[in-house]
Design brief:
Elements: E1 5-10, E2 19-25, E3 30-36, H1 39-50, E4 54-58, H2 72-81, H3 102-109, E5 122-126, H4 129-137, H5 150-165, H6 180-191, H7 195-219, E6 224-229, E7 233-238, H8 258-286
Parallel strand pairs: 1-4, 4-5
Antiparallel strand pairs: 1-2, 2-3, 6-7
Helix pairs in contact: 5-7
Amino acid sequence: MGRMHFVGLDLAWGEKNNTGVAVVDADGRLLHVGAAHDDESIEAAVEQYVSDDCLVAIDAPLIVRNPAGARPCETALNRDFHRFEAGAHPANTENPAFRKPRGARIATALTLDMDPASSSQRRAIEVYPHPASVVLFGLDKTLKYKKGSVETRRSELLRLMTLIEELDKATPRLRVNHNVSWVELRKRVEAATRPVQLDRDEDPVDAVLCAYVALYWYHRPEDVTVYGDFATGYIVTPTLPAKLAPTGRHRVKPQPDTEELRARVAQVAALLDEAQRELSVIRNALDI
């Protein structure tokens, strides 16, 4: 059996746009960071890493069944992360892009199991870098490397890269500093003077964070929250510490099915009646 690999895909909406691709091994070593475009090039980039045990973390909706509005997982995640400006955008089938989500298409092509509760050795999960960065780096707000002036975006992206490099001291450990492609990526970001250059280089950085979320879940499943479920869609992210949770936040416990409970009570009552009758028969037979 081959080594476990953790793949991150910062998936673009269309096949002409840049998709970030990153791969980390079970010891946290960054093996690959780069970009791809169409589905075929993405699958080719990760093929050698997903043939054996793997966990592929995709920053894009995998399961979308609601015709309008937000998925339940987005509503739940946004309740926790809205104040950090790390909420998720709504995904629904009114948007043609989500009627057959690209992420699910790629996961299926790679024959990956998308159920977060599955025990399969080869899986794909949906992740979201913004809330992950809030938890992993203790941020008050998300870093603003997507919009704004070139100077602000470059500064914020470099800050994110530095924080990722500091995960070398985290648990689990992430080791990016000795990867040549990562070093070159940082140099390109430092030298960027145009928005298009930052657009190109932010995607691989996000992909590394996606791969780390997969690694984090593998090593620390008790510290990860799965918002939603396989039936309605889900997002996996490191759990927001209680001290950072919104005031008054509490997890809603599933409500019992009262009809089912009534039926069970009736069933147990009938069994008790039958047992009582049987006991009377036995006592009469024994004359006690």
